[in-house]
């Protein structure tokens, strides 16, 4: 069991030496989960795990910043957090800016957090899975309703107790490619009619996404250089092509739809710094990048998918496309121009 007082003292010492250290990185340095570090904060307030009720109240806060991340990609959108619909453990929130796919199977802990910064107090609601990893965070903005926030926190406040944090699960090992009926796999791939059927298709065959791409029909999946994502974003910004950026984790997928404008590199981070959308991507953690062509409801849907060295999905990029419409020609051209990883580079 974590001693919150001792952990908080250790964090203060660490923060004094590295004042810009983010909570996730600080937790790693201290050998604890981020949820435990947040719980150790004397100013944090534990919340009841009433996910549906909490999320349905966020719309009353006015404009907020929604943040969803994994270890290599941070996705931030700022706008109204409304239209939350939950069916059992699966939900969504579709708004002009904040667009979410919610998987409540993985939500375990929640806190209201107030931190002091150069611009004053920063208030947020933070949600974690059973491994203590953040699945989603909601930050108040200058235009948020602070009174409504305090009312929400008071309504769902819970006593702070010791957290039961489970060890991270290891990735299941892939079957050998030779063990898969490649001809049958490719035939079913070609017969798909909906891009949303792709994940269930892979699950039926017992293959990971990357293995599925390796086994894909000719011309339907190929590797590109990891740095291709920077080229994609810069060229999309240059021609003002509307795109879709998906990023997240086991408990939440967050989506940006629209153009990107301000693309910058700072160290190992590739950033999009726009007024309502920010993306921060650790380029040094991209182990594989794939362009894929999947059957959709109206022709092929083409995307760029990024993975780390453990096969975890970091981010996926699509062209903006309405249901029932074909892909934009400029999007197909952008992906076709990305530098292909030659076979000699793979070895």
UniProtKB/TrEMBL annotation:
Top-rank lineage group of the source organism: Bacteria
SUPFAM superfamilies in alphabetical order: Heme iron utilization protein-like (SSF144064)
Pfam family, one: HemS
Domain Haemin-degrading HemS/ChuX: from-to ranges: 31-156, 206-337
Biological process according to GO: iron ion transport
Matches recorded under CDD domains: HemS-like_C, HemS-like_N
Protein name in the entry: Hemin-degrading factor
Organism: Chromobacterium haemolyticum
